[in-house]
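Fill in residues.
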C-alpha cells in the first residue's frame, strides 16, 4: 500500500511538472509555492482596502470581502491554469476608486447599476480579447497618455488616502488645507505611514499589509477603534451576490463609464504584464507569449467579480515580488488562489479595520503607480502637455474619466497646432470627436 501511494504521489508530481513545464522554466514545486505565498502576502491588503472603498458607495462590506476573495481566486486560477504565468489578479485599486468616487458618488449611480456596467464591460473585454481588438486599442493609444493615465490614477488614489487620513481637509479659503495634528486619527495615520515606509524601504514582504495591521493595532490601543468581534466567520455573499441592476443601464452616461472601465483596465493590466514579464524574463522578441490567454484571465475575473459583487479585476504588480522569490509558472497561482479562498473567512477582521489604517496603503500605492511619470518625454512639448493635463485633471476633478478625456483632447489639439497631425491615428481622432461632443452636450443640457 505504501509503495502504491508513493507511486501515485510521484505520478501526480510528474503530471504537475509537465503541465506547468517546471523543468523548462528551471523551477520546482517548492519554489513555486514560496513564490505564490510571497505574492499573496504582498497583495493581501486588497482584502481589507477594497471593501472599505466600495463601502463608501453603499455596498455591504461583508459581501464585498467575499466577492474580493473569490473573484481574485477565480481570475488567478484562470491565469495560472490557462496562461501558465505567475501573475495574480484581484479587484484593481484604481478601478475601485473610479467605481466609488467617480461613478457612484459623483454621478449618483446606484452601486447595483454600477455593478451591471462592470459586468457589461467584462463581457466587452471578453469579446475584444477573443477578436484581438483589445491589443490593437492598446497599441493605438499614445504612449504619453498610457504613462500619464497610470500616474494620474496614482495621484488620485494618494489624494483619497490623504483625505481618509484627515491629512488633507476642506478649507473654504483655499479649497483644501492641512488637517489638525491634534486629531488622534491623524497622528495614528502618520505613524502608519512612517511604519509602512520603513517596512517597504527595508523590502519586507507584505509591508503594506503589516502597515495596515500595525496602524489598526495602535488605534485600538489608543481607544479610537474597537477590537474586532471575531477573526473568522462564514462568508456572507448574499448581500452582493447577483445584485446587478440591468434596468438602470439606459442611463445616458453609462456608455462613457463602461469605456472608462475598459480604458483604465487595458493600460493598468498591460503595464503590469510588461513589468512582471520583463522581470521574469518571459518576453520573447519584444512580445508576451500567450498574451491572449493572459488578457482573458482578467476579463473572466471581471465578469465573475461583478456577479459576486466587486469592481473590475486586473493583474497586480505585486506579482513581481513572487517572481523575485522564484515563481516562474502558473503553479504559484494555485497557492495564491487557495490563500484568497481562506481569506474569505476573515470578514470580521477585514471590516473592522478603520479608514485611517488603510490610508497609508493608498498613499504609497499611489507612489508606486506614479513611477510611469519617468517614461514621459517631457522635453517634447506635444507629449508633455497632454500628459500634464491628464495627471493634473484626474485628482483635481476627482474623476479618472475626466482626466482621460481632457488629456486625449489636448493631445489632438497640440499635435495639430504643431503641424504633427500625422501622429494622430484613427482611434485618437474618433475618441477626440466623441469626447468633444460629450462636453458640448453637457454644456447645453
Amino acid at each position: 500500500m505504501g509503495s502504491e501511494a508513493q507511486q501515485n504521489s510521484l505520478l501526480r508530481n510528474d503530471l504537475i511538472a509537465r503541465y506547468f513545464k517546471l523543468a523548462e522554466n528551471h523551477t520546482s514545486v517548492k519554489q513555486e509555492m514560496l513564490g505564490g505565498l510571497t505574492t499573496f502576502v504582498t497583495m493581501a491588503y486588497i482584502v481589507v482596502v477594497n471593501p472599505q472603498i466600495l463601502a463608501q458607495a453603499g455596498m455591504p462590506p461583508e459581501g464585498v470581502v467575499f466577492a474580493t476573495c473569490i473573484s481574485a481566486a477565480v481570475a488567478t486560477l484562470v491565469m495560472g491554469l490557462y496562461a501558465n504565468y505567475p501573475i495574480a489578479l484581484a479587484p484593481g485599486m484604481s478601478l475601485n476608486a473610479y467605481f466609488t468616487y467617480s461613478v457612484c458618488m459623483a454621478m449618483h449611480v446606484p452601486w447595483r447599476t454600477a455593478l451591471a456596467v462592470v459586468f457589461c464591460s467584462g463581457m466587452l473585454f471578453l469579446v475584444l480579447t477573443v477578436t484581438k481588438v483589445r491589443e490593437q486599442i492598446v497599441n493605438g493609444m499614445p504612449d504619453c497618455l498610457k504613462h500619464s493615465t497610470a500616474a494620474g490614477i496614482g495621484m488620485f488614489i494618494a489624494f483619497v488616502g490623504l483625505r481618509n487620513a484627515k491629512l488633507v481637509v476642506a478649507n473654504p479659503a483655499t479649497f483644501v488645507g492641512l488637517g489638525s495634528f491634534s486629531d488622534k486619527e491623524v497622528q495614528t495615520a502618520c505613524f502608519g505611514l512612517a511604519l509602512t515606509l520603513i517596512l517597504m524601504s527595508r523590502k519586507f514582504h507584505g509591508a503594506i499589509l503589516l502597515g495596515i495591521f500595525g496602524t489598526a493595532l495602535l488605534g485600538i490601543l489608543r481607544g479610537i477603534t474597537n477590537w474586532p468581534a471575531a477573526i473568522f466567520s462564514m462568508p456572507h455573499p448574499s448581500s452582493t451576490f447577483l445584485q446587478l441592476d440591468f434596468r438602470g443601464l439606459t442611463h445616458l452616461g453609462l456608455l462613457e463609464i463602461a469605456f472608462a472601465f475598459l480604458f483604465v483596465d487595458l493600460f493598468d493590466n498591460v503595464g503590469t504584464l510588461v513589468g512582471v514579464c520583463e522581470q521574469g524574463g518571459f518576453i520573447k522578441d519584444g512580445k508576451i507569449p500567450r498574451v491572449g490567454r493572459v488578457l482573458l484571465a482578467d476579463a473572466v475575473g471581471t465578469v465573475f467579480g461583478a456577479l459576486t459583487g466587486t469592481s473590475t479585476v486586473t493583474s497586480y504588480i505585486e506579482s513581481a515580488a513572487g517572481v523575485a522569490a522564484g515563481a516562474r509558472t502558473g503553479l504559484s497561482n494555485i497557492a495564491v488562489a487557495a490563500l484568497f479562498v481562506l481569506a474569505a473567512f476573515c470578514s470580521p477582521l477585514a471590516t473592522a479595520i478603520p479608514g485611517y489604517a488603510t490610508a497609508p496603503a493608498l498613499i504609497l500605492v499611489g507612489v508606486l503607480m506614479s513611477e510611469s511619470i519617468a517614461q514621459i518625454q517631457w522635453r517634447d512639448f506635444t507629449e508633455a502637455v497632454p500628459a500634464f493635463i491628464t495627471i493634473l485633471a484626474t485628482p483635481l476633478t476627482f474623476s479618472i474619466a475626466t482626466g482621460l478625456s481632457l488629456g486625449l483632447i489636448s493631445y489632438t489639439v497640440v499635435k495639430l497646432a504643431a503641424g504633427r497631425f500625422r501622429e494622430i491615428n484613427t482611434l485618437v481622432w474618433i475618441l477626440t470627436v466623441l469626447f468633444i461632443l460629450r462636453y458640448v452636450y453637457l454644456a447645453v443640457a
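Residues 26-369 form one domain.
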